[in-house]
Design brief:
single chain, 195 residues, alpha/beta, two-stranded antiparallel sheet
């Protein structure tokens, strides 16, 4: 549930770059976290292209790949850069446009759910399927997840998934380079520290 008595959904440790690609959530629910990976151009890290994509400012003729995606209107709530910097594009109480055509088995409701953007949060990790993510990224991801879990009581470890899991015929991210065991180990240790 979104508690309107709480401060807005902007993470204070993140650099704010507001995206126009968002809208109000249709229901008062935030209960799923979807992890993504992105690099623009593919396989290249750093640079302004990801932020440009999420703010509709990507210049199509700057790279051949950009011409194929510059028309897209997409966003995520967060981007975690290779150096661990966290950038936030959308207030977490708003719907970001990150999951696309996807579906997810909600064990609590015992049903398949679609329109995942309606009730999910999207975190992009700067990376690809083959390059290991950095320690700084995992540590920042855990910090963001702890903040989100404290903000939204419906979120728990079982409700963190990958883009590949919810859109397996279309997406592979964050891919085999993402170390789920290491992420869960850090998250468990941080949860214990928070008690």
């Amino acid at each position: 549930m979104i508690d309107n008595g709480k401060p807005d959904g902007w993470y204070k440790q993140a650099r704010k770059v507001a995206s126009p690609n968002c809208d109000p959530r249709p229901a008062d629910e935030v209960s799923l976290l979807v992890l993504h990976a992105i690099s623009l151009p593919p396989g290249q890290f750093s640079g302004p292209a990801i932020e440009a994509l999420f703010t509709n400012q990507l210049v199509a003729d700057e790279h051949p790949y950009f011409a194929t995606i510059a028309h897209l209107r997409v966003s995520a709530h967060f981007l975690i850069r290779r150096d661990g910097e966290c950038v936030q594009f959308v207030d977490t109480d708003q719907r970001a446009w990150h999951a696309g055509r996807s579906r997810w088995w909600d064990k609590q409701r015992m049903e398949w759910r679609q329109a995942l953007n309606d009730f999910s949060l999207g975190v992009e990790l700067e990376g690809d399927d083959t390059t290991p993510f950095t320690r700084a990224q995992y540590h920042m991801l855990v910090e963001v997840v702890i903040w989100l879990k404290n903000r939204y009581s419906a979120l728990n470890v079982s409700r963190i998934t990958s883009h590949a899991h919810v859109a397996p015929l279309r997406k592979t991210d964050p891919g085999p380079a993402f170390d789920w065991a290491y992420f869960h180990q850090l998250l468990s240790a941080s949860d214990l520290d928070a008690l």
